[in-house]
Backbone:
C-alpha cells in the first residue's frame, strides 16, 4: 500500500496517508485509458453538421444543354457537385458520435490514470483548503507553496463555491470533485492536488 505525505496549504508536512493498492497501485492499462479518452472527446461533439446533397439543392430541374452535338461532357443538372451552387459529395449529416464504454473498462481506466500519476510522483495530497476569502491571490500563493509550476487539477470531495470563485481565473488550474472526476482531466493535468477527504471519496467509489 503506497504511502504519501500529506501537506498543508503552506506546503509543509502535515502527516501521511496510505493509498489503496487497488486504485493507486495497479498496472496502467493504456488501451483502456485510450478508449475512455476517445469516448469523452467524442461525446462532447454535437454532431449537428449538415450540408445539402445534389438532390436537396434548390433548382437544377432542367437539362442544361442537349445530350449530343455540343462537344461538351454530358450533363443533366447544373446542381451536380462540380458546378457552382451544386450539391456536396457525401454530404455530412447530423449524427451521434457517442462511444459507449463498459463500466468495468471505465473503472479500469480511472485506476490506471491515478496509478500512473502516483508512479510519476505527480500526486499532492493536501489536508484541507481554508480560504479567508474568495481571492485568486490566495490560491496562487498556495500553488507556489506546494511547488506546482505546471498545469494542475484540484480534486475536492464536494463542490466548494468559494474555492471555485477564487481559482477560476487561473488558467493553469482546473477543478473537479469526486463525482465529476474523469480520466481525460487526470491525464491532461501535470499535477493532481487531492484533498484528504477526497481521497476517501475516491476510495469509496472505486475500491470495489
Residues:
Amino acid at each position: 500500500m503506497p504511502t504519501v505525505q500529506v501537506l498543508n496549504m503552506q506546503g509543509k508536512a502535515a502527516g501521511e496517508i496510505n493509498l489503496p493498492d487497488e486504485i493507486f497501485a495497479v498496472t496502467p492499462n493504456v488501451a483502456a485509458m485510450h478508449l475512455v479518452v476517445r469516448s469523452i472527446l467524442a461525446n462532447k461533439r454535437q454532431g449537428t453538421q449538415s450540408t445539402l446533397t445534389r438532390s436537396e439543392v434548390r433548382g437544377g430541374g432542367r437539362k442544361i444543354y442537349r445530350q449530343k452535338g455540343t462537344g461538351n461532357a454530358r450533363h443533366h443538372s447544373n446542381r451536380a457537385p462540380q458546378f457552382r451552387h451544386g450539391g456536396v459529395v457525401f454530404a455530412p449529416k447530423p449524427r451521434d458520435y457517442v462511444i459507449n464504454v463498459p463500466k468495468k473498462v471505465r473503472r479500469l481506466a480511472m485506476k490506471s490514470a491515478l496509478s500512473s500519476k502516483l508512479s510519476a510522483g505527480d500526486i499532492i495530497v493536501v489536508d484541507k483548503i481554508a480560504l479567508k476569502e474568495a481571492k485568486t491571490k490566495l490560491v496562487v500563493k498556495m500553488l507556489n507553496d506546494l511547488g506546482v509550476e505546471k498545469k494542475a487539477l484540484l480534486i475536492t470531495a464536494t463542490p466548494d463555491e468559494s474555492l471555485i470563485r477564487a481559482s477560476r481565473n487561473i488558467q493553469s488550474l482546473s477543478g473537479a470533485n469526486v463525482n465529476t472526476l474523469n480520466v481525460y482531466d487526470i491525464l491532461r493535468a501535470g499535477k493532481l492536488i487531492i484533498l484528504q477527504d477526497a481521497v476517501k471519496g475516491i476510495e469509496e467509489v472505486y475500491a470495489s
